[in-house]
Q: What sequence folds into this?
DNA sequence: CGTCATGTTGAGCGTCATCAACAGGAGTGG
DNA sequence: CCACTCCTGTTGATGACGCTCAACATGACG
């Protein structure tokens, strides 16, 4: 559960005994293979899932067979937290890699949030951040041409991974484990697999990214960011806030 | 302020004296013309804006001059509520029509939320709903062809307006005031103005929508919904929750 | 009456989707 | 160990969807 708690602590100040409380209310743990649904459209979860390990995505599937990935998530998130408020899921949450998930009963979590307002606060802020990322994805999908769209996604992933120590940096070079297929990328960027393939080759040709089946390298983050029109502003909420006097009390 | 408070009450149960409390902490009111920024990218608001009247949008502007609208909002919302957590705005909030806005100091609102947890809860849920809408917009932008994209947007707007009594319904016909230009639609759907124009003409030709400069009519919501692949699931959070025994206590 | 914003139409072209085929690696079972 | 299949990546050919540029129509407004 450490990934989870550490992540919450990056967002808000939590009382020191919250660790034990949270670990105490975990009811079970489950392992998933890649490309499986953790929660499906229409489900009415009675527990909140906590992602302990792996990459997952939110996605919707259309009548025409197309699948749109609307968000990527890494270890530490509670992807179906909204089920606390909205009984039925309006989208699928699926694994991209194999993944490990812990479950917390709604009742226990509600109770804990009631007695620890900072916890509710942290979750709310988490929701705010995710909304900000979704907005940027809208921009990506609606306003950027193919190559920049993919480049932008790489910038976002690299930045988010690095923030949690899951990417290696050497100067302006960043590299990280890469578990996604081009088909995943196609679903996330609203492009066809073929076009994703050609766009990646173009980016490779320009020396902007290096990509193998298991590793991604961005030789120069600044250059890729410039090309993609990447501005990390929208990820700022993920940084530990500088606490203003007003904000603290 | 009634639109605002009524809207919050649709989302969560609030104590009866909250009306006076909220009205008491409004510090000022301002009127905007159409197509002006209420808050701009980079701003650090000290007040939360409450939209009392008019249509507004969230949007980002890219280096290539393109503008992507990422959300539409109607009267009753607090569009820059996130400034409570994230000091700097990561996008613009702009009027689409003329609009009237009230301002509440961050300090007062924080204080009130501290003493009335239901209020914080309502705002959090509002954030959850907005995130759900953003996801559906991602799907729209990434996975639907032009005509269905526009049709879907009309379905969403009609549904949201009707929920607050701002649309007229006769059987399966819905109509409502229409203040947007085709250029606004282009920014919201990621299409060129010309293509928006032609798509609308196609929808008109199929009898799916009727559109004049000031009024929109959907002759048959079900038919348009079927054409667009519209499923109102994702707007469910906006409905008054049915309170489960568990949820209440 | 001129100006401006908005809507409309035509022509040409580019981006990207679709369809199809094939190559390589990983895993499976005989 | 080899044959087989499946998944992923790659490439080519073709055409559709949607963009750009340009011109013009219309109504609102001063």
A:
């Amino acid at each position: 559960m450490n990934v989870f708690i550490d992540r919450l602590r990056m967002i808000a100040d939590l009382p020191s005994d919250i660790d034990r409380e949270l670990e105490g209310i975990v009811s079970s743990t489950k392992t998933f293979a890649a490309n499986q649904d953790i929660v499906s459209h229409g489900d009415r979860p009675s527990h909140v899932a906590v992602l302990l390990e792996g990459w997952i995505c939110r996605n919707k599937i259309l009548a025409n067979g197309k699948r749109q990935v609307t968000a990527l998530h890494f270890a530490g998130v509670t992807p179906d937290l909204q089920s606390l408020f909205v009984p039925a899921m309006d989208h699928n949450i699926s694994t991209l890699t194999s993944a490990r998930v812990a479950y917390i009963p709604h009742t226990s979590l509600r109770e804990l949030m009631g007695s620890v307002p900072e916890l509710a606060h942290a979750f709310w802020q988490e929701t705010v951040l995710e909304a900000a990322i979704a907005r940027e994805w809208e921009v990506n999908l609606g306003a950027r041409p193919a190559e920049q769209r993919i480049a932008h996604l790489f910038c976002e992933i690299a930045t988010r991974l690095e923030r949690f120590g899951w990417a290696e940096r050497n100067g302006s070079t960043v590299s990280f484990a890469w578990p996604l297929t081009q088909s995943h990328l196609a679903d996330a960027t609203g492009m066809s697999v073929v076009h994703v393939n050609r766009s990646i080759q173009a980016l490779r040709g320009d020396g902007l990214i290096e990509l193998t089946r298991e590793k991604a390298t961005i030789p120069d983050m600044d250059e890729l960011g410039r090309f993609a029109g990447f501005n990390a502003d929208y990820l700022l909420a993920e940084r530990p806030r500088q606490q203003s006097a007003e904000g603290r009390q």
